[in-house]
Amino acid sequence: MPTDIQSTFPVTSDLTPIEPAKSVSPSVQEPIDPNNPRWGLGGAFLVWVASIILLAVVPLFFLIPYSLQRGLDPGSPEYVHQLASLALTDKTAIFLQVLALLPTHLLTFALVWALVTRFGQRPFLASLGWGWSGRLRFWGSVGLGVTLFLAGTVIAKLLGADQPTQMEQIINSSPGARYLIAALAVFTAPFVEEFIYRGVLFAALQKQIVRTILWLAENLGRERTVRLVAGARTVGVTGAVILVLGLFTLIHVPQYWPNFGVIAAVGMLSVSLTLIRAYTGRLLPCIVIHFVFNGITSILLLIEPHLPKFGPATEHAPSAILLIAKLWLSVFGL
After folding, report:
1. Cα–Cα distances in Å, from 60 out to 100, 102, 255?
2. How many CB atoms within 10 Å of residue 19?
3. Which member of 116, 153, 183, 233 has the greatest number of CB atoms within 10 A?
4. What is the pLDDT of residues 11-39, one digit of tens each?
5. Cβ(324)–Cβ(262) under 8 Å?
């Protein structure tokens, strides 16, 4: 990649060195570039689809046995309706659905690992861009996490985020559900979200767009110049940011419609994290930012039941502040 492109978007040489890949032959080692991954767009898209299917299917392995214990008859024509009602109203059923997120996240990790490493043939974290760049390191990432949390809260509040949601009901269903959601939000959700969207999807989309532009240019008779490659790289990053946001929106906007405040806040945060991934060339800053964001959210969720109530006005304020945090957790599969 020409060196002048580093002025806007980094390439491997601009980043902290990444460990070499496993040798292809005893004397040759493949370089690792998180912006030029070994996996393709098809594999990345299949992992994304599989992660969505897992979110829908895995909870059934928890709900169906519990429904049998509660006396529901699978042979009844009303079973599906009864199961849906149980899932929405029964506190234990709700807790089981939250608990099902743990194996869902673990299975998603396994899918990402299989794609990125080709079942152990290549390093996992280095291929995704694990590490720091000279452009953004640990404390800068922490500061951005706090800033984005505050910005998302303000945007949601200004545009209206006071409409109750299903996520609100899940969190308030039982102390166990609240604590479990807080734990998953910190220890698994940041990794799942970033590995999928800013890891495999962003890198694959960027690579495919750049390749397509260069292929079209060469077939139109244009010589591959430094300016052409730089332009293709810029378009690739921009297109990848837009497409990642589109896939993210496709899944999550229906959950919050017509709550425009939360939709705007979630979109802003998704774009910000993807731009940070493009700017730094690394995934680790995004994970730290996401971890800080969810950490603040989890703390607020845990202390909310213990906040004093001093009348309607004061009572409304903490709920408005916490609403965006609660909804943001659900964006990451919680």
Report:
1. 9, 14, 20
2. 13
3. 116
4. 443 444 454 444 444 444 567 889 889 99
5. yes
Retrieve residue 96's tokens: 């089981």
Count of CB atoms within 10 A of residue 115's CB? Answer: 23
Catalogue the long-range contacts made by 93-97 (C-beta closer than 8 Å, 24 or more residues apart): 93/63, 93/66, 93/67, 94/170, 94/173, 94/174, 94/177, 95/173, 95/174, 95/176, 95/177, 95/180, 96/59, 96/62, 96/63, 96/66, 97/59, 97/62, 97/63, 97/170
8 Å CB contact between 229 and 124: no
- The rounded distance, in Å, linking the Cα atoms of 109 and 174 is 28
Task: Record the pTM.
Answer: 0.82
pLDDT of residue 216: 87
Tell me, rounded to whole angstroms, the distance of Cα 197 from its chain centroid: 5
Cα gap 212→214, rounded to integer Å? 6
Token pair recorded at residue 288: 């730290």
- For the packed helices 101-117 and 175-187, what is the interaxial angle rounded to 10 degrees? 10
Residue 102's pLDDT band, with cuts at 50, 70 and 90, is very high
C-beta of residue 179 within 8 angstroms of C-beta of residue 108: no
d(CA 161, CA 156): 5
In the chain, DSSP finds a helix count (H) and a strand count (E) of: 15, 2
**Stated length of the chain:** 334
